[in-house]
């Protein structure tokens, strides 16, 4: 296992790394710099829009930052750039002036104009002030773009990347959507609450579309929309453990995103406003995401850690080009440092073995 006081503090280029083992588990602005390679590739990535295909998320900036945090060498980051960039599309040329960003919530366009808006606000008021103003406004839409707006902002903030942070805020505004579930609490554990909701939606009409489409359909189901879904006394550890347990039990693309979302949420907590209210939005999104996963016809074997430890896991992940492999391994490592649960290594090892 890694020594938490020393692990990964220096990447292969010799630069000091910023990661939770260095005391940044609560989301404070990372004061370490990214490698020159990562900065150059992030600059090149600005020519791509936040979405491609059928509203799929551009993972490239997140992938580059995660690789850099894991100490990936320059050639590995270059390969990951090429592998991910080939599917992306150029930024939309729209630069409509933005006076009030709230007017553009969920409009699905004008990311360039929104970026300029946030850059101007940050230049005038400071980036911290912008984040403290806007993160609480955006958290009701934590599920936007299948959690990727949340994740992209968290990575940008942790990397201390000014332009990327503004770009992530613009992306979140553009894709903003809410699930609008009731805040009523119930005296039950997260697992019991999720099990009750799963029974309520059993036999539902088929969900369709991409992850966020299916989540919105599930949230509108009468068995979900009209009932209490918030466990009383909920805390972030419980949500993270619920997401981990679901994904550990079953390799599933949607469930993977609930694990990486919990990591991202933890990084953004200092800017989230009232913590209980913020956590409500995360929980509703996580539990609704699990409802969209169809029951397995057979129970797969749970992930194990046979033959791998964290150093081997991180070394392998730092050479990966698949965005979800890279992000899952980085989030799992960070969450392991926060919570000490061995299942995080198991899910990372399983994901790497499946490449």
TrEMBL record:
The keyword Repressor is annotated on this UniProt entry: no
Residues forming coiled coils: none
UniProt feature, compositional bias: Basic residues: 7-18
The entry's keywords: Oxidoreductase
Sequence segments annotated as region (Disordered): 1-27
Keyword Oxidoreductase attached: yes
Name of one Pfam family that matches: Questin_oxidase
PANTHER family in UniProt: PROTEIN, PUTATIVE (AFU_ORTHOLOGUE AFUA_5G03330)-RELATED
Protein name: Questin oxidase family protein
Lineage: Bacteria, Pseudomonadati, Pseudomonadota, Betaproteobacteria, Burkholderiales
